[in-house]
Batch of 4 targets.
Target 1
Amino acid sequence: MADSNWRGQAACRGVDPELFFPEVSDEPLVRKQVAAAKAVCRVCPVRDQCLAEALLRLPHGIAGGLTEQERRRVRSADSLAKADTPRWQALLDAGRSHPEIAHECGVTVRTVDRWVSRLRDEVVSGRGDPR
């Protein structure tokens, strides 16, 4: 699939765009709307492309499965991360949950738990990045 055509494959195509831009006036309603938008993103076949685009160009709304606050944390983590930092670690640093990381990386939650455990062991032993 060509990079220019990924939007045509998006799961949100045909969904009311307002779903991805919740109003901040009613917190319980916002949480429900964010969950509904993320549910669409969760099954999207081009989520990675959308997230990459959102990290570069979208300051508002939900895109690539992340809220604007979550994307800010990813950008901060990316700017601090070394070039060789694995994607799962950048997602962890950005505050993503183990199930979210597992889904994004195509592995089980148990695998993510192992990665995190190894990272902690390396930090404790002084071999890892203390972030």
Target 2
Amino acid sequence: MHRSRLYAILIDAPRDEADAAAAFWSAALGAPARPEPGAPQFIALHDALPGLVAAVQSVDDAPRIHLDIETDDVVAETGRLLGLGAVQVGQWQECRVLRVPGGHLVCVLPVESDPALFDAQARAWP
């Protein structure tokens, strides 16, 4: 058995447009935008989505929105999602990048949130 939960909604913006995108979403959502220390590709939108991380991610690709799912077993959760029709299209560090039916991207990553929040909100899977 493993557990997982939706962790983040990321607004991917081309590198040269990321700052403008972060300013827009910050104003639109009334959420302060702050760069993430140690992760310059992310600009967090603090408290935009209570209980979830919202951020603009600078990418070398087309603009899109993707979801991050955190789990206590990356291999098991990736396998579960592959069984539902996802296809793995990449890997970055411990994160598995999947393309799901409909064409969207989903990243599966180890638990990043506060352990108490993860324990309270994660779903258990056989």
Target 3
Amino acid sequence: MYSNILVPIALDNEDDRTAQALDIAKSLSAEGATITLLHVVEAVPSYAISYISTDILDATRTGIETELARLASDLGANSVVIDGHSGRSILDYAEEQGSDLIVIASHRPGMQTLLLGSTATHVVRHANCSVHVLR
């Protein structure tokens, strides 16, 4: 059983994947464990940022924070939204918070992920703690 579980949530994923990840985190948690849901907001590419108003960016961020907080409250967990590169930011956050388990959903592999890599692959390869990958 784990006492400090990090669950990265990609809100664009299928809802059943999120629910499954939350169920796994709950079932692997020790009594009194801390579960944290984390969403990483990737930077908008510089060539596109001038076409997006700050109102849209702010509303999107607020929507993400609201949805993540809702998911966390249903589970009795914490929610955190940070900016950065997904793979590296998840690992940095897990290290800073002393997470002993990361529960992460993985997309089905395809040619694009074989060439570019994926967040789950990066986390599995570089994490200093246990990682449970949901496939």
Target 4
Amino acid sequence: MSKRKDKGLKLLAEGRVFQLREGEFIVKSERGDGEYRVTWSRDRWVCSCPDF
């Protein structure tokens, strides 16, 4: 499993992922100082996070 996938699963387990609608989520940052929009678009995940 990739490091990014491990981090994503950890955020999910910690209750930092909120579904807005099908294929669209808000994810609270690990540091707790922000949140990012994650969407499923054109057969891939897209994130507004700076390191995407």
